[in-house]
Request: fold
Amino acid sequence: MKNLVLPSLRSFAAIFFPKLCPGCMNPLHETERVICWGCQLALPQTDHPWDFQNELWEKMNQFGRVERVVSLFDFHKNSRVQSLLHQLKYKGQQEIGEFLGNWIAPQIMTSKVFSEVDAVLPLPLHPERFRQRGYNQVQKFSDCLAHHLGLPVVNDLVVRKKKTRPLVKMKNTDRWEEVDNAFAVKGYQNNTFKHFLLVDDVITTGATLSSCANALLETCGGSISFVALASRLS
Ligand SMILES: [Zn+2]
Reply:
């Protein structure tokens, strides 16, 4: 009886409260999970997993030595990607992070793009922001990547000590000033990792990620790579 009741309750709920695709906000078909087929086909995927010296790598390398940089999607305003990231970051839909981790991991593994990495670090939120949001939006994505790559996730090596304002509308010099000294590395005396993979949701200016990378490298040495869900080059 139990087995019959539960599916019918689910169908009933699905009629009145259909689960929406976070990319296009249309109801998901019962065969679709997290992101609809239409969005999966239309999302603008980059070729970064197969192009080690891609444009994003060139951009990030200006701010300090970076081994590899990969973002899954190109970011544009008012796009499906923006909608996906908004639902992930502000609407508690953490399953999007896991879905996209499962999406990009096989590509990364095939291309051996991160074959020398030995630890995955989600870019930390400021503690106050973490309390407000209740989660780090790149945690599930990072966990999923690390699982596929057989690597540890390190959540306690870097802390964000400065609550930075959004950088997008700032002038270039102000951006760097805003993120200067924003991160601190703790417990590094026991660190044994040599190549860190820093994970963020969107790379736009690159300033935040670079600031965190610099703090990490100055304290721990070694090398750094980046992965992001999306990136905007301009
Ligand atoms: Zn969709």
User: Anything to note?
Assistant: The chain has a mean pLDDT of 91. The longest helix spans residues 95-111.
